[in-house]
Write a structure and sequence with these properties.
The protein is of the alpha/beta class. It has helices at residues 20-27, 46-64, 85-98, 110-123, 137-141, 169-190, 205-209, 250-262, 264-271, 286-291, 307-311, 328-335, 344-347, 363-375, 377-394, 397-412; strands at residues 5-10, 37-44, 69-74, 127-131, 147-151, 199-202, 218-220, 240-244, 276-280, 297-301, 315-318, 340-342, 358-359. The protein folds into 2 domains: 5-224 and 397-417, Glycogen Phosphorylase B (Rossmann fold, 3-Layer(aba) Sandwich), CATH 3.40.50.2000; 240-394, 3-Layer(aba) Sandwich (Rossmann fold). α7 (205-209) links the parallel β6 and β7 (218-220).
Length: 421
């Protein structure tokens, strides 16, 4: 019996797997890679293309472990990066004509569509696996191939990505008008299944609850995380707090600003001994670098391998106030046995039980939870044990593989075809 041939479409390369989206895209395919024939088409900007070129044959060999073929196409600039009103207007009008969402952060590329069509034809593709609403445009132009939409977030919750606050009154008016259309199209696809996806996959039950089960079935495929190296034994005279997250994403900048201003001073005062805060993430803003003294607050920037920092940490913080989706860094910390303190927003969407981590939304309460951890090695150890048990139950590769098989079985038995006419 011929293996199912699946074309995976992503808005970014999957290797090196150093971000949540890449880890999810690769980690949900790899456990079932021997059961199906997977092909990959990824969009890549200039820096990512350079990264691919530097990786050379070794990087392509890593891709070949999972994918029978790999192709890359340019990820086009978004309107925020386009020069001139005419280019921006042409972008918006094209998207409006095709009823495409996410106009202010769209990666629609006609050349990518033609390349996808060619791969479908030449490789005899049976199924499209489209990651993110950013890739929904492929479905518009390949309506006859069964397709699954992988929802990494509920994107309309995050709109607008680039609010227009400057420029002429006409520019702002046009931007907002097209933004309203963009959000309507996002709702049509995410909620009403206007593009008639055969199934939709979600990372969290919270996101899945936003979308009605009809007219196409919904599936939960959790974030995959293999057990990581355990943290070092906790000591009573040290307390190292760790944050991991790229600062190119505004909610992360907001979160660390809130933490440094309203939480960290109380932790310093209440711990009873010196404490350290280690911030890991690309593109830290200048104001954050200015606050890093390399004695108590460390801004490491992008770090190739975070394991040494994670294994030496005593607590992991997720002080997010806005955003959507699931934070893989939380799951990685729990899998390593690292105690986590998070806001409700930071850990939403995860099937956590009381005792898996600590949750606080008020800055004083957040600081108090960290001070408790600083003063109690036993509390850190108990939370670390609970975190590893949680990760093994909900996010292990075999759990993810079983969830992915359920999606494919539903399509094979036509349970996933109810949204088609």
């Amino acid at each position: 019996m011929r293996r199912r041939r699946i074309l995976v479409l992503t808005p970014y390369p999957l290797l090196p797997a150093h971000s949540g989206g890449r880890l999810y895209g690769l980690g949900t395919v790899t456990p079932v890679a021997q059961e199906h024939e997977f092909h990959l088409l990824s969009l890549a900007n200039a820096s990512e293309r350079e990264e691919i070129a530097r990786g050379g044959d070794a990087l392509l060999a890593d891709y070949a472990k999972t994918f029978a073929s790999v192709a890359f196409e340019e990820r086009p600039p978004i309107p925020h990066e386009l020069a001139g009103r005419a280019r921006k207007l042409r972008h918006f009008l094209t998207h409006a004509a095709h009823r495409l969402p996410l106009m202010d952060l769209s990666y629609y590329n006609p050349r990518a569509v033609e390349l996808a069509r060619r791969i479908v034809r030449e490789r005899n593709i049976d199924l499209l696996e489209i990651h993110h609403l950013h890739g929904a445009f492929y479905r518009r132009f390949l309506p006859d191939v069964p397709a699954v939409l992988i929802n990494h977030n509920i994107e309309q919750e995050l709109w607008p990505y680039w609010p227009k606050t400057q420029g002429s009154a006409l520019d702002r008016w046009l931007w907002n008008k097209f933004g309203t259309l963009s959000r309507r199209f996002a709702h049509d696809i995410e909620i009403d299944n206007a593009l008639r996806f055969d199934a939709k996959v979600f990372i969290s039950t919270r996101d899945m609850a936003h979308v009605p089960e009809a007219p196409c079935p919904r599936f939960l495929v959790p974030m995959p995380v293999a057990p990581g190296p355990p943290v070092e034994p906790f000591a009573r005279d040290r307390f190292r707090v760790l944050w991991i997250g790229g600062f190119g994403w505004p909610p992360n900048v907001e979160a660390i600003g809130w933490f440094l201003d309203r939480v960290w001073p109380a932790v310093r005062a209440g711990a009873g001994f010196p404490v350290e805060l280690h911030l890991v993430g690309s593109d830290p803003p200048d104001e954050l670098r200015a606050r890093a003294d390399d004695r108590e607050v460390f801004a490491h920037g992008y770090v190739e391998d975070v394991e040494p920092l994670r294994t030496r940490a005593d607590a992991f913080v997720v002080p997010l106030l806005t955003g959507s989706g699931v934070r893989i860094k939380i799951v990685e910390a729990l899998a390593a046995g690292l105690p986590v303190v998070s806001t409700s927003k930071g850990c939403e969407g995860l099937p956590l039980a009381p005792g898996d981590l600590l949750v606080a939304d008020d800055p004083a309460d957040f600081a108090a939870r960290l001070v408790e951890l600083a003063r109690s090695v036993e509390m850190r150890a108990a939370l670390g044990h609970a975190g590893r048990a949680y990760a093994a139950l909900h996010h292990a590769p075999d759990v993810v593989a079983a969830a992915k098989r359920r999606v494919y079985r539903a399509l094979e038995t036509n349970e996933g075809r109810r949204g088609r006419v």
